[in-house]
Write a structure and sequence with these properties.
mainly alpha, Rossmann fold, globular, TrpB-like_PALP
Amino acid sequence: TIEGISEYLKGKNPNIKIIGFEPTSNACFSGGPKGKHKIIGIGPGFKTDNFKRSTDRIDEIITVTDDDALEHTRRIPRIEGLLVGVTSGAAVWVAEQLLQRPEYKDPKKAVVVIFCDSGERYLTTPGLFPADNIDTSYLATE
């Protein structure tokens, strides 16, 4: 969780930046609207105890749209050969946004993305992965 990771990393280097993210349509951590979204695994609609305990270590929360998260989730397997979940797709989108900022263009700085989930559990999620690109014939449907 962001609580454990931020505690460890800030303990090693207090200057490190911890950036979280949440769905644009359910952005309770950053004071946005509360609503439904398609980013499975994040955005519960309330501030979790983990989040409350780590707010002093989180430097920024960025919102990501469902479409951006889903598009990146589908793109990563094609480009990198890694089957990731929607939360990981959202994380890559956030990293790409950070890399557009002047402060992250310094070659001495790094943006690290943690893939929080595998895409394997989402192979049967309707509409997530194009059926013509992934063989799901071995999966049980019941």
